[in-house]
């Protein structure tokens, strides 16, 4: 659909270019007609001058011996007239070539307009069955949706990045609590060893053993609380 809209925009630009080319072609045609009229007038003048030149040459032949300077002047004038005639013919040929090039360009543009007219028809059908009144409104709506989609994708990438950071922090927190749990287990093992050592000391250490047992109970309770807290945090 984005390609279709791009093609539609291209179609509209080409259509506008075709209109401009059509106007330019009409201007060229008008200029060409005016130039043809001017050249036709010049051709008539040249033919008239050529006839006059022939008459003049006939007269000059009769008096060539008497006035050689006049003959040379006439020859120079005839040469200039021929040069102007050649120049006009060259201009006419160049104008014909330019006109042919403009016609070819106009035909190509017309072919491209015809080729992309299907996309215009499609958008016109969309306007008919939608709440939009013009094709340009459909294009504006599409551009707005594209910008919103880009913003949503960017927001989604930001959320994913924050989620990854949260996972890293949770993993680090879990590792720290696991190390702390291991430390408490080691302390519990040490307390157990001390308890066993105290049992071997029998009576003199009973009072101390009671204290140690109470301490061990507190540590065990604290450890259980820590385990539960770690488990809850892990969940």
Automatic annotation (TrEMBL):
Coiled-coil region: 85-112
Any one Pfam family match given in the protein's UniProt record, by short name: DUF4200
Highest taxon in the source lineage: Eukaryota
A GO CC term attached to the entry: cytoskeleton
Residues covered by the DUF4200 domain: 12-128
Source organism: Steatornis caripensis (Oilbird)
Keyword annotations of the record: Coiled coil
Entry's Gene Ontology BP terms: spermatid development
Name the UniProt record assigns to this protein: CCD42 protein
